[in-house]
Design a protein that fits this description.
CATH superfamily of the largest domain: Alanine racemase
Bound molecules: pyridoxal-5'-phosphate
Structural class: alpha/beta
InterPro entries: Ala_racemase/Decarboxylase_C, De-COase2_C, De-COase2_CS, De-COase2_N, Orn/DAP/Arg_de-COase, PLP-binding_barrel
Number of strands: 18
Family: Belongs to the Orn/Lys/Arg decarboxylase class-II family.
Cofactor: pyridoxal 5'-phosphate
Domain Orn/DAP/Arg decarboxylase 2 N-terminal: 77-325
Number of domains: 2
Pfam family, one: Orn_Arg_deC_N
């Protein structure tokens, strides 16, 4: 199931430059990606229609998440191919999916079948990866707040751990003792190359909370010494940013990390660091259907910026999240009511802050593409009108989109929020006690139909009541001072 041990590198270095600026030229790589993007959009339309026809979406279930199984498999394959194309034959490459992007067991299982491991950052995420059958050697633990118990469990399982800071490294010292750890162990560094357009997601600013801040006084030397003192430290890790960071800056962060690894190995007089974990962070195009930038473009940019990273001397770990899943997910909601306010049409739907938290609270940073369908799930023809698409939560700002031009919506119509496969419907926010929606995976059956599989059931009202402390209903009224 997992192929990175064999090393699938073909060492075909393409000399072409970045394709990140658009898909306008006729090169086969672009054409292939464009066709795949068009096919994904067609599968999505078919799935919307089928979800309505088969009753997954309806008056009693006005909000569902959909995942494109074909799209997930293709994204995983493109990721593997992109790095295989630039690495020396035999180079071990582990692509560990950042579980936080889509923490759903069947998704992790599907990715595992496609040769993708798991990057986890909490006991919950580790448990999800294990429930999905992701083996220990394909799992990486990265959280900035690991407890001693978590570290002990990871070491017992043989899971790779990247220590975030000197205090965590001291805990590892105590746990490792004089033994030789089974787990590959490393240190996370912050190359401090600067942030991107979204402050909250910029992990490599001067004051980011993650990793050892390399440019701080004495920090670099501390890292070097930490390695020289501990023969069991064999990895260096950096995750330089997420959505909003320019690719050259991502590459620069990785180049800095590579240079540090070279320095450490030089001073150690041996190849002590054998693996570099380059994190995730490839941005997603939320403005259109095209998959840009592609993994292929990013891998080639890295190969040009840091050629030594790919010559076979280092094993590689990647931790992509959003770029693997975002475009494979669609949030579907029924329009419950329509009205006008201040002259502007408003469509009230069931998708709001509970499933699109970032978009609702930070609409400038996280705009979502929306698509309108009629009550039968067919793409709704115009004429378009400028309207607000609102969610169900009880505050005025609960809008999926403000002043958006879409076919004028009517009650019973369906609205799709596109590119929501990562950090959206899998990231429920329990405002107004709104239930977590069901999630289904879809696959064209080859005869014009669509087959669905349940990925996650909808949360029931009973479950909401239970989780809200129903078993402790009298806890506060019966609390008395002794
Ligand atoms: C969030 C995170 C990732 C994944 O980031 P994406 O932008 O979703 O690719 C990878 N590594 C670490 C350490 C992270 O915190």
């Amino acid at each position: 199931m997992f192929g990175w041990k064999q090393g699938t590198g073909t060492h075909r270095r393409r000399r072409r430059r970045d394709e990140g600026e658009g898909m306008s030229d006729g090169h086969p790589v672009y054409r292939q990606q464009r066709n795949a993007d068009e096919e994904r959009a067609a599968r999505r339309d078919a799935a919307v229609r089928a979800a309505v026809e088969q009753g997954l979406l309806g008056p009693g279930s006005p909000l569902v998440g959909l995942l494109d199984v074909t799209g997930i498999r293709q994204a995983a394959a493109r990721l593997r191919q992109a790095f295989a194309d630039v690495t020396a034959p035999g180079t071990p490459v582990l692509h560990a999916f950042a579980v936080k992007a889509t923490p759903l067991v069947p998704v992790l299982r599907l990715l595992a079948e496609e040769g993708i491991g798991a990057e986890v950052a909490s006991p919950g995420e580790l448990a999800l990866a294990r429930a999905a059958g992701v083996p220990a050697e394909a799992t990486v633990l990265d959280s900035p707040a690991k407890t001693t118990a978590e570290l002990r469990e990871a070491l017992a399982l043989g899971i790779a751990v990247n220590a975030d800071n000197p205090q965590e490294l001291a805990r590892l010292d105590a746990l490792v003792g004089s033994s030789v750890p089974r787990s590959p162990l490393g240190i996370r560094v912050n190359p401090q190359v600067g942030g991107g357009s979204i402050e909250a997601l910029s992990t490599a600013t001067a004051t980011s909370k993650f990793g050892v801040a390399l440019r701080d006084e004495g920090a670099r030397e501390w890292v070097v010494k930490a390695f020289l003192d501990r023969p069991w430290l064999t990895r260096l890790h950096a995750h330089t940013g997420s959505q909003g960071i320019p690719l050259p800056r991502l590459a620069q962060g990785i180049a800095e990390t590579y240079r540090l690894a070279e320095e450490i190995n030089e001073r150690a007089g041996r190849r002590q660091i054998d693996t570099l974990d380059i994190g995730g962070g490839l941005p997603v195009n939320f403005a259109g259907e095209e998959t840009v930038p592609t993994y292929a473009a990013y891998a080639r940019l890295l190969a040009e910026t840091v050629p030594g990273l790919f010559d076979g001397r280092y094993g590689l770990v990647t931790e992509f999240g959003r770029s693997l899943l975002a475009k494979q997910g669609t949030l579907l909601t029924r329009v419950e009511y329509t009205k006008t306010a201040g002259g502007r049409p408003v469509a009230v739907t069931h998708a709001g802050v509970q499933v699109a938290t970032r978009t609702v609270y930070a609409p400038q940073s996280w705009p979502l593409r929306l698509a309108a369908y009629d009550a039968e799930g067919r793409p709704k023809p115009g004429p378009e009108a400028v309207q607000d698409i609102a969610g169900p939560a009880c505050f005025a700002g609960d809008l999926l989109a403000e002043a958006r031009s879409l076919a004028l919506l009517e009650p019973g119509d369906v609205v799709a929020a596109l590119d929501t496969g990562a950090y959206y419907f899998a990231h429920h926010y329990a405002y107004n006690s709104l239930p977590r929606p069901a999630v289904y995976g879809y696959l064209p059956d080859g005869r014009g139909g669509i087959a669905f599989a349940t990925v996650r059931e909808a949360q029931t009202v009973e479950e909401i009541v239970t989780e809200a402390g129903a078993a402790h209903a009298t806890a506060l009224t019966s609390l008395k001072l002794p």
